[in-house]
Every structure is written in C-alpha cells, then in structure tokens.
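Researcher: Hi, I'm a grad student and pretty new to this. My advisor asked me to get structures for two proteins we've been looking at. I'm not sure of the right format, so I'll just paste the first sequence and hope you can take it from there.
Model: That works fine. Here's the first sequence with its structure tokens right after it:
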Amino acid sequence: MFRCGDLTILLLGLAFHCFVIEKRKSLCHSLGRPSRSDFVQSEVVSSECIVSPVLGQIPPERLSGGVKTLLLILNEPDKIFNASTCGDNCAKWILEIGKRIDVTINLRHMMSFGKDTQFDIEVQNGGEIVHSMRELLPLASKYLNEMKQE
C-alpha cells in the first residue's frame, strides 16, 4: 500500500449516487476546479443527472471509476481505497488530496506521479519514505512483483 490515499468503492445504489454527486461538488470546491484535461467539465443538474459535454445527460453511476475514487478518497479519508481504478491523470489529484489530509491508497499498478514531481509518500509495504518517481519506481516494482508471485 502507498500512504498518500485510500479507497474501496463499497456502495452502489441510489444513496451512493447521491453521495457521489455531493462529493464531486466537494472536490471542485475543496481543491479548486480541475482543469479540462483532468476531468470533462460536467454540470450537476440533480441527484440523478449530470450533463456532460461529451456524453450528454448521464446518471452519477456513469462517472469514471477514477472520479468516484478521488471523491471517496477526499471525503472518506479514514478508509483505504483501491486507486488502481484511477489512471495517471488522477495522480496529481491524489497528491493534492494527500497534502491536505492524511490518506492511504492501495495501488496494484505503477502510477506515474510525474517525472519531476516532488512528494512525500510512505510505502507501507516496507515503511520507506520516497520523494520522487526515481525513488518510488524500484520499490513499487519490487512490491508489485512480489504481489504477482502470491
């Protein structure tokens, strides 16, 4: 596990969909509006409808796994979430959330946090603290390979 975020999508159904919509609003308010290249700019019309410029009207369950994961990380920091549902486009937001609140995530793939990005991540598998991708890559590779052998 990488200490910097935490996520497990546990709930589906109407209550979760309403939760996702409210938490998506929280993400924009708490972290500033994500850039267009990070998330498609969508308008939350109601608890059942989001209007996407790409997809048209969609229900909240059609938000990407990465957006749902970021919302849960931001709003449920005491839980551990599987950030493997996130693409590399979520990495900078995971780091931003991690700067504001202490979170833990589970990663089962090599996520790029940026070649020149500086950060403080504790790799919980061995307790190491890393500050760059150069330091993270060998450790992540080691632990990911160990997981494959289990």
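Researcher: Oh nice, that was easy. Here's the second one.
Model: And its structure:
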Amino acid sequence: MRDTRPGPPSFPGRSSLGRVPLAISALALLLGASGCARIRTHQGYQVDKLLVDSVQPGIDNRESVELTLGRPTFTAQFGQQDWYYVSRDMRQLAFASPRPTDQTVLRVRFDPAGNVVAVDRTGLEQVARISPSGDKTPTLGRNRSLFDEIFGNIGAVGAGGAPGGGAGGPGPNGS
C-alpha cells in the first residue's frame, strides 16, 4: 500500500541554501541596530521631593538635615555654611556625547549656630554649554608660528645704534 498523504510543499526555484544568507544578514542587522540604543543614566543624589520639602528653615539644623537627606554631595568651599545636593539625569544615543535632560541642585544654607536659614533649588538653566574649537585654545594677540617665536626677536632687542637700544643709554643697565 502506498502512502498518499501530501508531503511538504515544494516551491520551484527556492532552496534551503537561499535562506542561510538571509538569516545571517538579518542577524547582522539586529546586532548592528542594538548599538543604537538610547542610554539613560542618573548621577548623584536621588531627589525625594517629600523629604526635600520636609526640611524647614528655622526648624531644622545640620543634624536633622543629615538624618533626613543624608550626607551632602559637597559642602561650601569656605566654611560649612552651605550644603549642596546635586542630581543629574543624562541621555546618550549610541556614540554621541551625553546630554543632560534634568538637573537639580539643592542648596541648604545654615547660620553660624547650625540652623537652616534657607533651602534653594536650581535646575537645568544653570548648565553652561561650551563648544571647544578643535584642539587649540583661542587666545588674544598675534598668531605666530614656532619659527617666529624662536627667531622673531633676533636683532630687535639691544641692537647697537638702534633708538633706545645699545650701550650707554639712559636705562639702569646702560640701555
């Protein structure tokens, strides 16, 4: 007795060997596209709005602020009157430079007795954008080459017979 069940469909001109390059190119495309993922990062203090709002001027002191908010990111350079809590969210796409999307700088000011005087917040408006131009720092003045710098003053300073130069002039060393 012969088997009359239909077998797998066959398509003329299509072989399984044609699918291998297609699968390899699809895999390479997926791996290449995975490098274009957006990266989001957080740096610094984790701001909890409820805790920040609980710090009250005239009520809290250094110890209570440290118990509520934790140790500051940094303190004032001169004296211990200001504590700073810095938080920043960044975004980066593939190999591009990271850019800030959100920033909070919380400044807690204390009086000399250690009591909270004020709590100030600033955000992303304080971030300065700078654009370096190449690998050189632009300066004011003449644009001179290394050769000009080395040999440019030969004969210009202390030349005999030149006005203001040479021996016997009115200066302290005879110039």
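Researcher: Is there anything I should tell my advisor about the second?
Model: You could mention this: The mean pLDDT is 78.
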